[in-house]
Amino acid sequence: MIWFLKNRAYPIGVDMGNDCVKLIQLGNDEKEVTLVAGGSENRPESIEPGSANWQRWAIGAIEKIIANGKFRGRSVIAAIPANEVLIDHIRVPKTDDDKLEDVVLSKIKQKLPFELDKAMIKYIPTENDNVMVIATEREKIDRHLAIYEKTQLVIKTIGVWPIALTNSYTKFFGRRKTDVEAIVMLLNIETDFTNVVICRHKSPLFARSIPMGAKQVDNDEMITRLVLELNSCRRQFSSMYKNARIERLIFLSGSPYGVIGDKDKYRIIATQLEMPAQMGDCLAAVKIEDPYNVGIDRRQCQFSWATAFGLSLSQEQVEN
């Protein structure tokens, strides 16, 4: 009971994907980050992603995870699935802060696959006059908000996956003094996609979602294709940030086996990229007070929790 009173719980991070929903709640016992509760549900193959049946499945899955877990409170920070979000990088010459939004909207308008007045847009000024723009349709936001309303969860904010991955890296794997200025490439390999973030500590500089994940990367040829996509990300980054050097690669994909299920594949990716690499296992980086009742079996986990962890950590990042 004393531990319970001292441990401050963060909001629940909800990583809502088309194929899986993952919930994580982290806390802080004044010494280290703790895992309060968690859980996941896979989408049945008979349900089409994005359909009305998918929405009903998502509501039921979240309710089941909440009912079976020891979550505290009903506040959540959620993210829209990566495939429903457009990320682009634009260059904006020096301008007054009060005019920046107008400049960003005028530049991104022609690149949107939907009307500007139907979009929700977030932009992040980075370095060298570059701006990361994150956009999605309001209709998709409304669809997700309806899910949380039905489950009686309280949305504190809608997060974005590049910031969530950066949060996880900063909190758990970028804690040395030398990491503050280091530029790293984060890879979050999921079942059907790979999310890439290049960041300088807390600051995301580049992000891209590649529609190729563990299900597709099942042989040497497909690994090479993924590496080609990653090299394309590096070239684009280099064109945006002159003289910036990526120092290392970090796989935010769970255990040494991760979602790929074979640690040799991670080694091959790092070797072909010719970059020093490390595994970033978020589950191994937190304290678990009650491993038998937390809702996650670390030994059987075969996918990444990095986005959900980063979403739950978002409140701490704001407060700090």
Outline the structure in words.
The chain is an alpha/beta fold and 320 residues long. It has 2 domains: 2-83 and 138-319, ATPase, nucleotide binding domain (Nucleotidyltransferase, domain 5, 2-Layer Sandwich); 84-136, Dna Ligase, domain 1 (2-Layer Sandwich). Helix content is 34%, strand content 28%. It has 10 helices and 13 strands. The strands form 3 sheets. The chain has a 5-stranded mixed sheet with strand order 3-2-1-4-8. A 5-stranded mixed sheet has the order 11-10-9-12-13, sandwiched between helices. The two termini are 27 Å apart.
Q: Characteristics of this structure?
A:
alpha/beta, 10 helices, disordered N terminus, 13 strands, 5-stranded mixed β-sheet, globular, 320 residues, 2 domains, Nucleotidyltransferase, domain 5, Dna Ligase, domain 1
Low-confidence regions = 1-5
Shape: globular
* Major sheet summary line: 5 strands, mixed
CATH topology of the largest domain: Nucleotidyltransferase, domain 5
Whole-number radius of gyration?
Answer: 19 Å
Share of β-strand residues: 25-35%
Mean pLDDT across all residues, rounded?
90
Order of helices and strands: HEEEHEEHEEHEHEEEHEHEHHH
Main sheet: which strands, in order across? 3-2-1-4-8
Helix content: 25-40%
Structural class, please? alpha/beta
CATH class group of the largest domain: Alpha Beta
The name of the CATH architecture of the largest domain is 2-Layer Sandwich
Number of helices: 10
Identify the CATH homologous superfamily of the largest domain.
ATPase, nucleotide binding domain
Distance between the termini: 27 Å
Count the strands?
13
Number of domains: 2
